Structures are given as structure tokens and as C-alpha cells.
Amino acid sequence: MTTILAFDTSAGACSAAVRSNGETLAGRYEERARGQAEILMPMVGEVVSAAGLAYADLDLIATTVGPGSFTGMRIGIAAARAMSLAARIPALGLTTLEVVAAGIDGTGTGPHTVLACVESKREDIYAQLFGADGEPMTEPMAATPAALAATTPVDGALILAGSASKPMAAALEAAGRDFRLADGPAEPQAAVAARMAEKRWTPGVSLAPLAPLYLRPPDTTGPKP
Amino acid sequence: MIILGIETSCDETSAAVVDDSAGAASARIRSNVVKSQIDEHRPFGGIVPEVAARAHLRHLDGLIGRAMAEAGADWTELDGVAATGGPGLIGGVIVGVMSGKAIAAVHGLPFLAVNHLEGHALTARLTDDLEFPYLLLLVSGGHCQLLAVEGVGAYRRLGTTIDDAIGEAFDKTAKMLGLGYPGGPRVEARARNGEPDRFRLPRPMKGRAGCHFSFSGLKTAVRHAIDGLGRAPTETDIDDLCAGFQTAAGEAIVDRTANAMETFRGLHPGANDLVAAGGVAANGALRTMLEALCGENGFQLTAPEPALCTDNGAMIAWAGLERLRAGRTDTLDFAPRPRWPLDPDAPAVAYAGVKA
Questions:
Q1: Are residues B246 and B333 in the same domain?
Q2: How near does any CA of chain A get to the CA of B317, in Å?
Q3: Local structure of residue B334 (DSSP, 8 states)
Q4: Which of B43, B53, B107 sits opposite A74 (nearest CB)?
Q5: Whole domain around residue B227: which residue ranges?
Q6: pTM, whole model, 2 decimals?
Q7: Are residues B32 and B171 in the same domain?
Q8: Closest CB to A45 among B64, B98, B332
Q9: Confidence of residue A220 (pLDDT cuts 50, 70, 90)
Q10: Quick check: helix, strand or coil at residue A52?
């Protein structure tokens, strides 16, 4: 039996969930672009108690590692790494893009491709293509919607998901590409991350320290190295 | 009590374990692990906030693990977890605060969000058991203040900089002279061989009433002195400019501190302790000048050893410990604070920004 605590603060929401033995025991999801540093730990405390558990009952922490808001991803990763250290349990990282892609309901669509896209507050958006089986078809990347539209494969159905769906949809329309918008929350969901972590993690296997997926070097002024 | 302290507000990542049951002040710090980010920022000639935030995240959990191991402490022995909650570079503060909250949550411990400046302010109680009240000269890369320290959480600001912090002036002087980053220790080293009177630099605010500081004009005067050479400065020029700058800055600080001593004595007759804290308090020449000032005015100078003047986790753990003793804990929804004055009632000073 594996009990997992998952949370996400890396984009436009804050969410936390506890999953054990294939079942989500408790979950919270709140869309908000700011203030995750304040609400994350109280929310985590709430889902752990709502699941009827204590921190000592957890076997694994899972969190999103970006791409997304630099501050947001650091909030989640710092908390996950410290909990992992203090509770002596491993921490597993998932990308915001794969969690967004796995969060959509593709049933009844037949063969399809999912384009997950996350807002970056810039002209570029973060995006990645996934097959119907959830397997990634490209690397996570930062690119303009127009550039992404030009490289999106043209065969089969395309489902667009995530917080940057709006600019991406406009670019796909301009490129004359058919697609449909995914239903449900546009932000990554901790409950989905917990489900994915359960599938991905082999108990007893140690994991490398969580590393943020920034996809962009720091903004710096002054002389470069 | 045993407290874990976390410091991530600027360019040092640090974790420490402090224990007040040890009796002698010298035995209280069970570990104090500090990782400087100097190498990460050097290519940019100064601290880049996003580079700092990334580096804190990369290193902090490992440093916490080391601090616990070096202290020989187990999580269950801790009485609380303290983290710098501000003021400072917010990206780094968030990393420290989230790590502290997470550890506190996992082990059901009190969480203490410590004002970074309070960490500096209370260090003399960690190292020397100093009694309240005392006069504090806080001199660092981000701050330059004179405060009456009257108790835990009780501060009265007597003076602050109206423009640059003193450490900033050191760093900018070093940059103008091509000495690289961080500038403070390099300026101090070069000043040792220099002739302080060759370049006549201003002593900003000297002779004026009050205790405020200003260093922007001094920095400009250094720039003019360099330009006035009409050539690239020689090694001797650099030594002399460093000595001139350091002496001018030191005299300005001494003048302001002398005024603060008078004000402080008015508030607390009979009190006679001056504490110098913050990174610039590690400067040997400044310490010597402050010693002389204290001698003239019947004050006693306490300046923590240099490693405890620069940013470190032990001072945060200690301030957390003092706050826990006073029952001042924080909840896990604490919001990291980029600005957080020690004396919220102090009037705003013209032109003073975040450093006030």
C-alpha cells in the first residue's frame, strides 16, 4: 500500500491531494495566481487530516516542477524537498505540462494528440505534445503560439489543454488547423499528479532531488560570463 | 530549547542548530552551515535576484541536512523551526520560509518567521548574553541603521540611510576600481596599504544633527576622484582611494553613532552598550574606530565575530528561540515579506527606500 501526498503551486492554482491504494482520499483545488506561499501548507495540512492520516503515514511526496511561474514552482519544490528530508520519504517531480495533459478526458475522441500549454506571462508559452496514451511526443518547450502552430502535426484529432489555450487556439485557427478545447480545469491538478505518481513510482527506489524545469535562463543585466 | 534556523534572504544560504540549554554562550551554536553564492553572482558583478533564488533552492535542503547532522540532532529533539521571513530578496525568502514551514508541519513544531534584521539585532545576546536595552549599529549591504534595542520585537529606530546602504557603497567603490565582487573585504584589504589623506573625500552628514546616514555623495566623490586622475588608476591610486573611502565612510558612521549615543542615553539613562552587527561590522578598521568612540563616551562595544556578523542561520535560529520563549510563534499561512521594518512606527525618511 502506497500513500501519496501531491501538491501543485507552479502555475495559476494551488492544489493538494492525498491518494492511497488507487483512491483519492482528499483533495483541494483553488485557482489563484498569487499567494501560494501562504495557502499551500495549511491546504496540505487540511488534506492530510481530511484523509484521516498523519504526515508519518505518507510514503511519497509528488509535486509539479514547472514549467510555469518561477516563484510558484519554487514554492512547491522547496516545500516538497524539505518535507522529503524531514519525513525521510522520497519526492517525485512531474511537469505541469504532463499533469495538464493527463487531466483531460479524451474518452470517446478516438486516436488523438494532446497539446498541453501553460502560460508564461510572455509572448512565448510553455507547450508539449502528448499521444492519446499520455506518452510525450515532443520535449517541453517555450515558443510562440505561431511557431507551435506551424510545427503541430496535421493528422488526427487535436485536443488543446491548459492555461495558454486561448492564444494557442487563436494561432491554430490562423493556421487553419482543426482542434477542440479540453473541458475541465485549465490548471494542473494535484489529484491528477497523485494518480500519475502512483503509476510511476516503484516503492523502495530512491529518486534524484527535485529539480525545477525553468526552460529559461535567469534574467540578468550587466556583463555576461 | 533547540531551534533549527534557516537564512536565505540575500546571497548566503544557511542552516544552523542553536541550543540554549548549553549554558555557556560559546557552546550554544551546535552547527552553522553557510554556503555563499559569491561564485554564482561574480560573473554579473553583483547579486542577481533570480540567480540567488535558484541557488537557494538548489542548496538549502542539503545544508539543512548537514546542519542537523553536524549538530547531532534528530528532528524529534527540535523545539521549533525558524526561517527568515523578510526583509530581503523575495525569491530566496520564499524558499527558506517554505522549507521551514514544511519541516515544522511534518514534525508538528512551532514555526517562527524571523525578521532578518532582528537576527542581526539579537546576535549579541546569543554570543555575549547582553541585557536589553542596547544601542545597535546595523551596517550591511542592504541596511544602515541605528536602533535602540529594548526587547524582543521592541525596536526604536534612531537613524537610517536616506540613500545607499554602507555595504552598497563599499561594493560600488570596489566595482569602480575594478576590484570585483564582493567589494567590502577587497576595499578593506587594499585600504591597509593606502594613504587615507591623499584624496579628500566628503564625510556625508558629519556635523549635522540627528542620526541619519547618506552614502550616495561619497560614492560620487570616489567616481570624480577616479576621473580626476586623467588615467587608469595605478595600484597605489587604488590603495589610496580605498583607504580614503574607508576612512571617510568610517568617520561618517562614527559621527552619526556619537549622536545616537546621546539620544539613546536620553531614552535609557545608565545604559552603555553599543552593538555593531551586519556584514560591514566585520570591517576591522570600522571596529577600531568604534572602539575609540566607545572609549570616549563610556560605552562598551560588542561586535560579534565576523562569521556571525555576515548573514548566517545561527542568528535566525537564536532570534527564533527568543521569540519562542516570548510565545511569539507564527502560523503556517505566514506571508513572506520583502519589506519589513523593525520599527514600524518610525517616520518615513525622505528619499529612503527599502533600506530604511
A1: no
A2: 17
A3: P
A4: B53
A5: 132-304
A6: 0.95
A7: no
A8: B332
A9: confident
A10: coil
